[in-house]
Design brief:
By secondary structure, the chain is an alpha/beta fold. The protein has a domain of 159 residues: Rossmann fold (3-Layer(aba) Sandwich). It has 25 helices and 6 strands. The protein has a 6-stranded mixed sheet, with helices on both faces.
């Protein structure tokens, strides 16, 4: 008994997509990285060092980085924090840091407003002008009797936030000296500012309240509609998200980000045609946006238009050669065309760009599995599990590899772990049932196929396989009932029809 290859692949990615609304694979419009709040009090210099270490830990090796903004009540405080972060990053071989003079030149030429709070969209535009891969923005503002330092790391090409962190700083002598030497009137924070802060903290309900207040103050604020739409998106309230993105587009039809965000929401609703239309419009407005091509490629992939998907992933990679997610997705498009060698090459490149990319290891393992190179498949699935011990799909695939080698006990252990991590994982029940069948443990096999049917009642294969187990137990009536059920679901199921004839013949003897 074996699963249909194409169905497996689509199931694999449909589950991965649901678990990745915040992964490096990258179709979400807001924060996809880990957000953390460090509430213990530290001196300013200590927090700057910790923040710099955090930045270094989050960015890919040898990335070109720009520290473009640090909102604070004091110009001197802003410059002090930026200069020290830059110094610490420069002293680390993990990244290349742009000169402040380059940022000043861009600011003068393009007339960007980089003092005070800077929008994500402006930050990304500045990053593209500087040809950086990562940009760092943040703020250090009063928080009761202390100060709060917020850092945000954004991938310029994908416009994804890959990490945020918040530190609480006690007002030591250095901080007080910087404040007293150059006090400027602190910018009064608006509901829009508060909404952004709550978004970064993952408090989407409070963010929505603040963005709604911002819209009451200014009903024509496209940014507030867009940001509220992103909060609804994070809550998986896609209809409200679409309504807000649509209103943002009406107010500002030339902002590519609004189309991308609405396209993401349509994608999550599986309305791939509308998603493609929005991503296409985003590309027209910004032909150099790698993420828009990647997102449209995913929509084409889900429509099984693999050639167009490959073309879009290829363009995304051309615009952003370090786009590990685009390599992984293009690999899956090649996989679906049964071009396993090209798929493996793309997964390997994704891993090279991001050695901790668990999904890419699992994806490559699937391709090796299809080539019957089970030893390499084992190695990749094991590496994926080591990187993500909660990766149920990787356990399931490794179990399948053990099954193919007739190592049923190890297979059962992996399928059991997959089920423990995801009790609704119908395919894992199927494969564990198959492994029990291989061990002639028919009762456990029947129990697993029965659970699969409960989770996926329109799966003709599950009825057919349970019928096979009943057949092996000489329980002809139950076998016949299951084969008939399989044929009601799929009247063209040749194996079930042949098995039904055999069961009827055996019963008549």
């Amino acid at each position: 008994m074996r699963m249909d290859t194409v169905r497996n692949a689509l199931l694999f990615f449909s589950i991965v997509l649901l678990s990745l609304s915040g992964c490096t694979s990258q179709s979400v419009p807001v924060n996809s990285g880990a957000s953390a709040i460090d509430s213990h009090l530290e001196q300013l210099d200590s927090v700057i060092r910790e923040g710099s270490d955090y930045i270094i830990s989050k960015i890919p090796t040898r990335s070109k980085v720009g520290v473009i903004n640090m909102n604070s009540p004091s110009v001197n405080l802003s410059n002090y924090v930026i200069d020290n972060i830059v110094m610490l990053l420069v002293n680390n071989d993990n990244c290349l840091v742009i000169e402040r003079s380059e940022l000043d030149n861009i600011q003068k030429e393009q007339k960007y407003q980089l003092s005070g709070e800077v929008s994500d969209e402006t930050a990304v535009l500045v990053g593209k002008q500087l040809e950086t891969q990562m940009i760092i923005t943040g703020s250090i503002l009063p928080l009761g009797n202390n100060y709060s330092l917020r850092l945000k790391i954004t991938d310029v090409q994908t416009a994804q936030i890959i990490g945020t962190k918040i530190y609480t700083v006690r007002p030591d002598n250095i901080l007080l000296s910087l404040l007293s030497s150059s006090i400027t009137e602190p910018k009064k924070e608006t509901p829009l500012d508060h909404g952004k802060m709550f978004m970064e903290r993952g408090d989407f309900d409070t963010a929505i309240v603040n963005f709604t207040e911002a819209l009451q103050l200014d009903p024509n604020n496209a940014i507030a509609y867009n940001n509220r739409g992103k909060a609804y998106y994070e809550k998986k309230d896609y209809d409200r998200a679409i309504a807000d993105f649509t209103q943002a587009i009406k107010l500002d039809p030339n902002d590519a980000n609004y189309y991308k965000n609405r396209g993401d929401a349509y994608y999550e609703k599986k309305d791939y045609d509308r998603a493609i239309a929005d991503f296409t419009q985003a590309i027209k407005l910004d032909p150099n946006d790698a993420r828009a091509y990647d997102s449209r490629g995913r929509a084409y992939y889900m429509k099984e238009d693999y050639d167009r998907a490959i073309a879009d992933y290829t363009q995304a990679i051309k615009l952003y050669p370090n786009f590990a997610g685009a390599y992984n997705w293009r690999g899956w498009a090649y996989y679906m065309k049964e071009d396993y060698d090209r798929a493996i090459a793309d997964y390997t490149q994704a891993i090279k760009l991001d050695p901790n990319y668990a999904i890419a290891y699992s994806s490559r393992g699937v391709a090796y599995y299809e080539k019957r190179d089970y030893d390499r498949a084992f190695a990749d699935f094991t590496r994926a599990i080591k990187l993500d011990s909660n990766f149920a799909i990787a356990y399931n695939w490794r179990g399948k590899a053990y099954y193919q080698k007739e190592d049923y006990d190890r297979a059962i252990a992996d399928f059991t772990q997959a089920i423990k991590l995801d009790s609704n994982f119908a395919t894992a029940y199927n494969w564990r049932g198959s492994a029990y069948y291989g061990k002639k443990d028919y009762d456990r096999a029947i129990a697993d196929f029965t659970q699969q049917i409960k989770l996926d009642p329109n799966n003709a294969n599950a009825y057919n396989w349970r019928g096979d187990v009943y057949f092996s137990k000489n329980n002809w009536n139950s076998a016949i009932a299951d084969y008939e059920a399989a044929l009601r679901i799929d009247p063209n199921y040749a194996n079930a029809r042949q098995s039904l004839e055999n069961a009827r013949r055996e019963r008549g003897r």
